[in-house]
Amino acid sequence: MLASENENVLDIDGSQVVVTAADKVFNFDQMFGPEVGQENVYKELEGCVKKVLEGFNATVFAYGQTGTGKTFTMGTSNKESSIEDEGRGVVIRALQQIIGNKRQDQDFLTVKISFYEINKEQVYDLLNPSCTKVPLQVREIQKGLFKVVQLTEVEVST
Q: How far is CA 137 from CA 140, 145, 151, in A?
């Protein structure tokens, strides 16, 4: 059943998005509107980075329609000037927090990062050295533990 011209197809209620036409509900830990700045988005994620510093893995998952600002929010600009820019995204802010919390007795700190895109139920490696979009497989290696096969990991060092 298609919605009429004046009927809403989506309702947003707190952390839920309800697709009224399909009678489906999607839950999110956090949703941000277009008025929320990069610094405020990152403040919501700082706890994840603190857990990384304690030895846990963390994932930040940006979801939305094409053109809604996922790439901008993640901050994947490769311009050196973006490092101190107020509009810098989540990735640069997280790396700055991790490197800034390096213990005094550490000579170096190594962090491995990966970037991937999920589009139409396919996973693509955004750091693939060949620069080609090749779908990757996702495997469950233990109950509840998944791995993207052949996903590129790049070391970021201080």
A: 10, 14, 9
Provide φ and ψ at 68, rounded to 5°.
-95, 0
User: CA 52, CA 102: separation in Å to the nearest integer?
Assistant: 12
Return the bridge partners of 11, or none.
18
Give the pTM. Answer: 0.68
Partners of 147 in beta bridges: 139
What amino acid is encoded at 14 in this protein? Answer: G
Query: CA nearest 151: which of 66, 50, 59?
Result: 59
Quick check: helix, strand or coil at residue 53? helix
pLDDT tens readout for residues 13-23: 777 777 777 77
Residues 23-56 pLDDT 10s: 788 777 777 878 888 898 899 888 888 888 888 8
